[in-house]
Automatic annotation (TrEMBL):
GO biological process entries: L-histidine biosynthetic process
Keyword Nucleotide-binding belongs to the record: yes
Single Gene Ontology MF annotation: ATP phosphoribosyltransferase activity
Protein's UniProt name: ATP phosphoribosyltransferase
Reaction(s) this enzyme catalyzes, per UniProt: 1-(5-phospho-beta-D-ribosyl)-ATP + diphosphate = 5-phospho-alpha-D-ribose 1-diphosphate + ATP
HAMAP family: HisG_Short
Subunit annotation: Heteromultimer composed of HisG and HisZ subunits.
Organism expressing this protein natively: Tepidiphilus thermophilus
ATP phosphoribosyltransferase catalytic domain residues: 53-208
Amino acid sequence: MERITLALSKGRIFTETLPLLAAAGIVPQDDPETSRRLILETNRPEVRLLIVRATDVPTYVQYGAADLGIAGRDVLLEHGGQGLYQPLDLRIARCRLCVAVPEGFDYGAAVQLGSRIRVATKYLKTAKAHFAAKGVHVDLIKLYGSMELAPLVGLADAIVDLVSSGNTLRANHLVEVEEIMSISSRLIVNQAALKLKRTLVQPLIDTFAETLHDQP
Ligand code: ATP
Ligand code: MG
């Protein structure tokens, strides 16, 4: 039997993908929040899910360990997208990538003066491209999480991070000073799988597209 494998992360992406899967008649047999399984069977024997870290999803799909995946635009930009076909913006896990600074730090003045700004982020590539395009001089510091802490303890002047409600920024006395881009998650497909498993892959893409089209 030919099978297809979809890689996605647990948490918000899994939760927000469930209705799209349901529309395609796919129901996971386990809940990744409670199960320790990393391979989830579904009600459809030819479809299974891989639960991986959000940043690892493009890698599994690039190398064909998964035929399809769901990943944030933030993650795809850092990965580079090699070997990936990106047919659909699923409009889930929406947020924005922003520059934020401590209340009281005059970001505009620092930029005007041409000062070097220290920026902590998990998004090195995207941040580098953003500041280069604006001609802002930055020293980038790579972090893997809790970016909000960096300016509070003098590790950086600013951060580049994802923001949705802004509650985490506010709780840490940070303010958003620049939106870099809006973020949502996309369906990604291994380019070889698209050709070789087209009879399974294409209907799934089509159903997702129709479901999105029917939503406001
Ligand atoms: P972890 O939080 O477990 O360290 P992660 O940050 O890689 O892992 P998630 O927090 O589940 O994983 O984020 C997955 C994707 O969801 C991100 O790549 C991004 O596209 C999107 N995302 C992240 N934070 C938010 C948010 N606050 N609101 C909406 N979407 C978000
Ligand atoms: Mg997170």
